[in-house]
Amino acid sequence: MDDPIDSYGCVKAPHAGSAASLRARVAGWRARAEVRGAWLALTLDSRDALDSLEAALSSGLGFRIHHAEGRDVTLGAWFGDAARGYPLPAGPTHTVGVGALVVDAERERVLVVRERTGPAAAEQRWKMVTGLVDRAEDVAAAAAREVLEEASVRTAFVEVVGLREGHQHQPFGASNLFFVCVLEALSREISVDGSELAEAKWIAFEEYERLPSYAPGTVYHELARLALEAARELARARGVAGAAEKRARLSHRALPLGPKFPDAKQTVWSVSLVELSGSRVAGSADVSAPATADVARDGASLAGGEQGKL
């Protein structure tokens, strides 16, 4: 049975063995008109696996390391038109972070934390909960998960209020996308994860505004300002019984990827007009559950990462 070929015309195959055996396999692949390159997957769990990696890299067949995680390494090689160079897509280039400002709208206060480890720990800085998005995890789910893991507070996702792109001073040279989210508290009791946090507490909006964490005019000061502005809007809506106010919000829904991938969905974010009311943001949902579920329009059921963190 032939090895599978992906949409770039590359064979996808595991690799183990000598440079000579790899050359024989590549000769067979290149005899197939539709093959233009190859991906080799290795798990570096033995001396033999390390020898196989060295053999592939020194084979003269053009294999190079494309990406790696833990002990798993993927090599890529292009057999097509040499004038095109190496047209295969680059390996992962970004990390994704979330900041979660949790709002207790009824008492007009927000949740802040002080980290035990991480970039903010040395400064003893009070800030919103932050973290990195896990593989195959939605931004809204990641925000709720981080709050639940670090402070044991259940939340309902409300909206994304800002996005920061960072290319300098990031780990390993990867760029970072940082989503600032507002979530509404569904519980108030705090229980701190001592491995990550030193402290967590509720503070009034006014106190959050006066925190000396970030210099005015800087990136993180602006992101914190946007989050607090949205928190105040939410509290105002909750404080007036029966009141309803419409505002633009960045909302999300899960859509099918297409007929070729019937079980796959991806999240689309778009600006829409939604209603803030005295009961709760229309369509918001408890996303503090640890298991991942589908994301639906305006926050139907969702499941509830250090540069890249606020």
How would you describe the overall organization of this protein?
This protein has 5 helices and 14 strands. It is α+β, with helices and mostly antiparallel strands. It has 2 domains: 10-84, Gcn5-related N-acetyltransferase (GNAT) (Aminopeptidase, 3-Layer(aba) Sandwich), CATH 3.40.630.30; 94-286, Nucleoside Triphosphate Pyrophosphohydrolase (Alpha-Beta Complex). The strands form 3 sheets. Strands 5, 6, 7, 8, 9, 10, 11 and 14 form an 8-stranded mixed beta sheet that branches. A hairpin with a 2-residue loop joins strand 3 (64-69) and strand 4 (72-78). The radius of gyration is 24 Å and the shape is elongated. The model is unreliable at 289-308 (pLDDT under 50).
Task: Summarize the model shown.
With 310 residues, this protein is α+β, with helices and mostly antiparallel strands.
